[in-house]
Amino acid sequence: MKSKFKNDKYKHVRGASRLLRISCRQCDSVICHYQKDGHGGLFRLYLDRISNANTALEGKGLSCPNGHLVAVRIIYEKESRPAFRLLPSAIMKKILET
Ligand SMILES: [Zn+2]
């Protein structure tokens, strides 16, 4: 039981998941898909929850395919988990699946 819980630790802790499509507010281009776990606002994109990225994820910033910066790389210290912190009002999100 304990190891099973750990395998999907973040999902279990945070509850329901939704698949979001993240796009640039400035130019409307799709940046990536993102699995958001739990409720509450979207302030960070954890790298392990990003999929179908249309842009490089290796840099210090996350930009849309047209080069608009939408987030900056951080390590979320509570979980030692690499993430991008979203800039205010930089992205739009659409729910694809719940
Ligand atoms: Zn853009």
What does this structure look like?
- The structure is a single chain.
- With 98 residues, this protein is mostly beta strands.
- The protein is built from 2 helices and 8 strands.
- The chain has one domain.
- 12% of the residues lie in helices and 46% in strands.
- The radius of gyration is 14 Å and the shape is globular.
- The N terminus is likely disordered.
- The chain binds zinc ion (ZN).
- Zinc ion binds next to loops.
Uncertain segments of ≥5 residues (pLDDT<50)?
1-7
Helix run count:
2
Tell me the number of strands. Answer: 8
Terminal CA distance reads 26 Å
Annotation keywords:
12% helix, binds zinc ion, 4-stranded antiparallel beta sheet, mainly beta, 2 helices, 98 residues, 8 strands
Which secondary structure elements does this structure contain, and how are they paired or packed?
Blueprint: H1 2-7, H2 9-14, E1 17-24, E2 30-37, E3 44-46, E4 50-51, E5 61-63, E6 69-76, E7 81-86, E8 91-97
Summed up:
With about 100 residues, this protein is mainly β. The protein has one domain. The protein has two helices and eight strands, in the order H-H-E-E-E-E-E-E-E-E.
